[in-house]
Design goal:
Layout: E1 6-15, H1 19-28, E2 35-39, E3 44-51, E4 54-61, H2 67-75, E5 78-86, H3 89-98, E6 109-110, E7 116-120, E8 130-134
Parallel strand pairs: 1-4, 5-8
Antiparallel strand pairs: 1-5, 2-3, 3-4, 6-7, 7-8
Length: 144
């Protein structure tokens, strides 16, 4: 079986100014938070809210120089990125790199839920910031 497969849509990242204030709207929809975590590498606090088989990930910056703070300053609140769950992030990154795709991260970094993540630059995706995420413990296709 080929390494580096996309397994599904993990989540939709949404930049918010405040998890408490902006999260109320999602509470009204019945999309209740099931996981909150600070991701120091990205200078954010995340609030995951399941939607079917994927989630909304609300992202609140913890520092003025975080990617989310910059996105809020430039574009305001709203969709920040789409995240795909992959079985082997190293294989996907190698394939993209070999094809000349512009990457934000050429190597995975730590993400929420203990995942290894990397971002693909919007200039290579038709304007969408794309996150690739490999769940912890998954090192081969069909892993946990």
């Amino acid at each position: 079986m080929e390494k580096g497969r996309v397994l599904g849509i993990s989540h939709l990242g949404i930049a918010v100014r405040s998890l408490e204030g902006d999260g109320r709207f999602y509470d009204l929809l019945g999309l209740m938070e099931n996981h909150r975590e600070e991701v120091a590498s990205q200078k954010v606090v995340t609030s995951f809210r399941p939607v079917g088989e994927s989630s909304f990930e609300l992202l609140e910056p913890t520092a003025a120089d975080s990617p989310i703070a910059r996105a809020l300053e430039k574009r305001g609140p709203g969709v920040h990125h789409v995240c795909l769950d992959v079985d082997d992030i190293e294989a996907v990154l190698a394939r993209l790199k070999a094809a000349g795709v512009k990457l934000v991260n050429e190597s995975p970094i730590d993400g929420a839920h203990g995942c290894r993540v990397a971002f693909v630059h919007p200039g290579s995706t038709g304007g969408i910031l794309l996150e690739l995420s490999q769940k912890s413990g998954r090192s081969t296709p069909g892993g946990p």
